[in-house]
Specification:
The complex is a heterodimer of chains A (about 110) and B (about 110). Chain A is built from no helices and eleven strands. Chain A has about 110 residues and is mainly beta. In chain A, strands 2, 4, 5, 9, 10 and 11 form a six-stranded mixed beta sheet that branches. Chain A has a five-stranded antiparallel beta sheet with strand order 1-3-8-7-6, with no helix packed on it. Chain B has about 110 residues and is an all-beta fold. The chains are: A mainly beta (about 110), B mainly beta (about 110). Chains A and B meet through β4, β5, β9 and β10 of A and β4, β5, β9 and β10 of B.
């Protein structure tokens, strides 16, 4: 049974810092891994999708890496800004061949000026 | 243009009532999903439909009945609402069932009193 763990659960940093958010999963037989952002009271915004054949994906100040063999992904946020404050969720497909996403509990990020 | 939309955004109702939540996607995707985010913010898959056919049913009580009139719509009907049904319900869609990025709607916050 696929399980996803995210560390840390919460992070509070001053503006400008480079950040590392961690995600680990128990079953390495995944199609892909997706990172989302959720703002309070809002829906989920897809940030990055890494296919199983890829090692990393980049979008602006965000870079996500994937190490399937060790069951880990890392989301790097460069030069953090107050607008980055949100909950970041990692998700992988569950076992069974369909894309039912299994989510981690998220990392709550607060970037203060 | 909104990719995945849900109505209503908020729903407050009493125990025992029946209510529906509607979801529409204009992305031309074949697969749609319902997820539930409980008070502890855990997101869990409930149902998935592919081309109007049910492909995932994650041990959800029979009081919950999804209906897909066409590929672009997936509605969720809930009978005999209970206090524990209070949560945020998210609709999502993807191009196909496996291996593709999922796009989420803004969520429907259901409060049962």
């Amino acid at each position: 049974k696929q399980e996803v763990t995210q560390i840390p659960a919460a992070l509070s940093v001053p503006e400008g810092e480079n950040l590392v958010l961690n995600c680990s999963f128990t079953d390495s037989a995944i199609y892909n891994l997706q990172w989302f952002r959720q703002d309070p009271g809002k829906g989920l915004t897809s940030l990055l999708l890494i296919q199983s054949s890829q090692r990393e994906q980049t979008s602006g100040r965000l870079n996500a890496s994937l190490d399937k063999s060790s069951g880990r992904s890392t989301l790097y946020i460069a030069a953090s800004q107050p607008g980055d404050s949100a909950t970041y969720l990692c998700a992988v497909p569950g076992t069974g061949g369909y894309n039912k996403l299994i989510f981690g509990a998220g990392t709550r990020l607060a970037v203060h000026p | 243009d909104t990719a995945v939309s849900q109505t209503p955004k908020y729903l407050v109702t009493q125990m025992g009532n029946d209510k529906s939540i509607k979801c529409e996607q204009n992305l031309g995707h074949d697969t749609m999903y319902w997820y539930k985010q409980d008070s502890k913010k855990f997101l869990k898959i409930m149902f998935s439909y592919n081309n109007k056919e049910l492909i995932i049913n994650e041990t959800v009580p029979n009081r919950f009945s999804p209906k897909s009139p066409d590929k672009a719509h997936l509605n969720l009907h809930i009978n005999s609402l209970e206090l524990g049904d209070s949560a945020v319900y998210f609709c999502a869609s993807s191009q196909e069932p496996a291996g593709y990025e999922q796009y989420f709607g803004p969520g429907t916050r259901l409060t049962v009193t």
